[in-house]
Structures are given as C-alpha cells and as structure tokens.
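User: Show me a protein chain along with its predicted structure.
Assistant: Here is one chain, sequence first, then structure tokens.
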Amino acid sequence: MKKPQLSLSVALLPLIILVVLLTYNVTVFGDDALSGSNQFILLLGGGVAGLLGHRNKVTYGEMLQKVGENLQSVTGPILILLLVGALTGTWLLSGIIPAMIDFGLQIANPRFFLPACVLISALVSLATGSSWSTSATIGIALIGIGKALDLPVGMVAGAVISGAYFGDKLSPLSDTTNLAPAMAGSELFAHIRYMLYTTLPCIVITLLLFIVLGWSFSSSGEVNTSFLSESIRKKFNITPWLFLVPLIVIIMIIKKTPSLLALFVGTLLGGLFALIFQPQLLMDLSGSSVLNFKTIYISIFNAITVDTQIETNDPLLNELFSSGGMQGMLGTVWLIICAMVFGGVMDAIGALQAISNAFLKWAQTNFQLIAGTAATSLTVNLTASDQYLAIVVPGKMFAKAYRDRNLAPENLSRTLEDAGTVTSVLVPWNTCGAYQSGVLGVGVAEYFFYAFFNWLSPLMTLSYAYFKIKIKNLNTD
C-alpha cells in the first residue's frame, strides 16, 4: 500500500524539535555537550521522526533498514577517524608534531609578527588537527608576545584564530574535516583537495591584510620564542629526518592512495620513528629504565589506542603534547552514529525527500542551493551553538538535494566547512566562540573583524557558487 507523502510542515517537525533540544542542551552542558548529551538528543530526534513514521504506516523494520544503510555508508569515515587518532598518537610520540611546532616558532620575526602568527598557528593546527589546542598553547604564547610588542590584542587574536582554523580545516587529523565528508558522502582527501580552491585564496588574502597591518604598527619589542623551542628540544630529539614521515604520507595522498592505507602507513612509520629517534621518551612513558620489546610495545600501543601525556618544563606545551589516540575519537564517532540514526529514520519516513523537494523548488540554481546550505550552517551555529551540529544537521538535510541536482558531494562538504566550521568562532555564545574568547582572554567583539579568514571563507564559497567556479558535477572526475 502506497504511503501518503509527508507535508513540508510535518517533515520539518522532527528537525525543528531537534534544533530546539540541541540549543537548550548546549546552554545546559556547554562544551561538555559533545561528550554524549548531544548524541542522545539526536537519538531523541530520531524517536520523534519514528513516531511520525509509525502514524504514516512506516514499519519499524523499514526504519531500521534505512538506519543500517546509513551506518554502512559511514564505515570508511569511522575507520578513518580511528586511524587519525592512532596517527596523532604516534606522530606525537615520534617527535613529528613537536618538530613541526618548533619549525613554526623559528619563523617568528618582529617586523612580520602578525602574518607569522597566522603561519605558526596554521602549522601547529595542521600538525595537530585542533584549532582549540593551538589557541590554548601557542596562541596564548603569541598573545603574550603581541602584548610585549604593544600590538592590539584583538588583532593578534584574529591572526591566531585565522591560522588555527585554516590548519584545522585542512588537516586530515581534524574531526570536523572528517565529519564534513562523512555527512556529505564524499571521500576525505577528495574533500580536502576540493577545499583548497576556496581556502587558499582566503588564507592568501588574510596574510596580505596582516602584512599591511603589521607594517602599520611600529614596535621596538622583540619576539622571543626560544623558551618554547628549548622546552621542546629538551624533551624530543628534533631532526629534519622526522619530516620524512609526513612527506611520505603526502606523496601517498597525491598518488591517490586510499585514505585508510595512507593513514595506516603513517601510523606505523610514526611508531618506527619513535623507536629510532625518541628511545628515552619511550622508556620514560613506560616507567622503565631499560629499552626492551615490552617498553616499546607499551609506549607505542598506548599512543595508538588510548592516550599519551608528555610532560615538559613548560605548561603551555603540556596540553599540546597530549593525545587521546583512537579512544579520543570515540566522541566524534558516537556523534556520527547517532546522526546516521536520525538521518536514517528521517529518510525512511519520507521527511528528507519532502524537505529536499521543497528546497529544490525554491533553489532553482546551484547558487541558491549552496547559499541555502551556508545559511543553514550559520543558523545552526547561531541557535544550536555548536560547530559539529552546523555540519551534521545541514549535511543530512541537503545531501539528497545535491545528488538530485547532479552535484558532487564535495560541493556540500566544502560548503559545510566554509560556512559551518570556521564561522562558529565568530558567535560569542557558540561553544567555539566562548572557548576561544576564554582561552585567549580576548572578547569575540575584539577579534571578530581581524579573524579575516573566518568571515572570508563563507563569502568565498558563495562567490565561487555565484560565478560558477569549480562547481563539480557527479559525472566529473
């Protein structure tokens, strides 16, 4: 028996309830909402959708089948996320990430301090995959140096945030960079390559603006980051040979090696280089005075699977030199699973089809479709106050609309990042805005204008859509 099609108002009801519940949930739990409560809210949203489906004669089996299909579609992204956690652990243990940070600190120059802030933050964020850790460590140090140089703190914070979100957005170690293609149905490294079209012009413009601003301010102060470099080199054996591992992974990515294989090789090489270059650290972490098979096994496997905490004599670096391994990715994995449950039930009851049909009737052009996606991401950032939800909710809402318009999923995943990930820090009551403001000690209003990269990104993606630049179709390689 053919089931009646849902009206748009009924189809939107579970989504509206979801956004309201998520908004309240974030106000109650704040930064801790991602620890589990947001995930359960997604399941509640799925339950509401299920009740509507039951009234519309959709069986439990049909809903469960759609959920299963959704979960199957994100098997690859979930495995990639777990391997990202493993790779982060071994790259920290081997000294690869500390070496990248140390190199970034070397490029600080008083005359070009502001653009150097962008570059240092970008390098650290690329290496760690976390804009939050970058701001909480190197960002705090750069703010202190900026004050010593008598530069406006809002300007320095804007440079730090711009670089941190550039790195976070492009790093395969970033959870949002993995989440966006998982929601859109694209492949991780295809998503990263496609983002370069809008991201590189934004960071170039950002650097040019900070170069101009830097030359506008005279300072007699000096940039001193030697204390951070000394702390790094006391704990790690820093050598250019460490950069061989990321170079190999980059070459594998360029050669279009499957993401899982490239990350797996990078993880194994990170463990091998830890043994070669950081034997003392392996002994320290395992609590042994002898380097033997058991010592090596414990340290490397802990870094891969659970956590690694490397203590230095500088408190700024201690937070940065910590990794949750594969275990640290479970929060995001849980979020993906619960989003797939909600999306699967919405698909089974015909709600996504109804929303997609209505949206496509309004969005007569690709520009309107992409602009509508960007507007939804911004709205979720303003209401639900969480960057992850600004990716998950519109990602599930519009994935089918992009397919129906014959647009490759990379268009959607890029828009989710350009409008969802990077704008979250511009909203004072968003978890990202509140976190960055609290950590850096600079109000959102103070750094808003100077976070050039973050507000240029959505404008750039809309410009590309309007002028039909690099809009990829499904049948395009």
